[in-house]
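Re: the 522-residue chain
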Amino acid sequence: MSIKVLGSQIDRQSEILSDSALQLIEKLHNSLNPKRLELLKKRKERVQNIAIGKELDFLAETESVREDNSWKVAPLAPGLIDRRVEITGPTERKMTINALNSGAKVWLADQEDATTPNWTNVIQGQINLNDAIRGSIEFINEAGKKYQLRNDAPLATIVMRPRGLHLPEKHILVDGEATSGSFVDFALYMVASAKLQIANGFGPYFYLPKLESHLEARLWNEAFLIGQEHIGIPRGTIRATVLIETYPAAFEMEEILYELREHCSGLNAGRWDYMFSVIKTHRSSGREFVLPERNSVTMTVPFMRAYTELLVKTCHKRNASANGGMAAFIPSADPAVNEVAFAKVQADKSREAGDGFDGSWVAHPGMVELCRTEFNKVLGDKPNQIDRKRNEVSVSAKDLLDVKSTPGQVTEAGLRNNISVSIQYLESWLRGIGAVAIFNLMEDAATAEISRSQIWQWIHNEIKLDDGRLIDAELVKRLTDEEIEKLGDSARYSQAKETFIACAISKEYLDFLTLPAYERMD
């Protein structure tokens, strides 16, 4: 083989990095990496075209796909028929057990935004998933408390989220070239765990992140075909749920379902990444696409409302499940904090269920029951509401692009929050922790991305705070120093500060915060 593994030796690594897994990685790289790189180039070209006035729109060349009512996605697979509550979190060992035990119907086992892709996490996460599927996983903390899988209730169905197509895996090279983090995660899971999942009555299920076009969905479909053939399972065994969390993808939802139709189970509304993508896509579009502070951008503002309504209609038209956004709140020891937050989450989940979503996400086991209660009110004994077609919904490209009508402002508190979240998250990320509790919210890479992107957007559009002060690089630097001083250990946050400042005030917008951060780790 021309494949080379550079990562340090991890305990039990051979169970995951088998010859078969490495062979599959090499196959995927040789067959698909040139296409992947070309599609990443097309992303940049799209942004350049938007900068000169070519706006996003539904594609004329795929209108026949949208107009053809005869095609549907594959039948819902076991474990994915009822998705009224999903929990998301990293594949860290204790969190794996807690997520599976949570009472949620589905666990998004996150190798992407909630996991720092250092070598240990890439391999150990796969080991943890494999042990969980075998039923042998357990964990004992420093105090001697033992965690193990429950046997008195069903466990959540595992749906693994690999890294996005933009992320490399620098520890595995083919002919000296870095491989794709996406395809490495996919290959390791397929070879080690797919047949075990099938034996358990389920299958290899995936959440696909950050797709920007139906051509990227087509690339993933090709990967699925190669993976299924490699391990010898029938074509169509895989099921994928696609996160519609980029602005361009919102204009190609039906086409994405079409490209993956023999492997697809649904779409998900990834709200934080979607807002991040709005800024990234329209970085050069001026004030028309400037967002107020992130907590003002609720799911009921016009452009977000249009996006979710279209998602539900599109999914149900094609017999796919529509999955709602994340409730990131973590229950607090303060009853007053819980009372306010629970009311907001309850209203959010009630709205989603009422709009026709088939389920929704939470980030903490303590929020599972609240989400389930709201969906039970609408679903009752039905596993989903795919039969509710939402034919009355009509969403235009203009509706999706209507960012300027979003109400809100930028306060010093909002700016400070973005700075503090970015710094605290980056510090943890660089230490290998990809899901972090900050201000009673479970933050991951998506919220760090929206936080630093908003600051960049405010600086470059000369936005003023509500008190009249201009948001500029000097103000951001000063507030950053003050926020780090509050955290109490400036040396600890030095690398995080350097990375954050470089991204937040740079002349050119950096597409992903995690790319320069990844270069800083082993």
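The radius of gyration is 22 Å.
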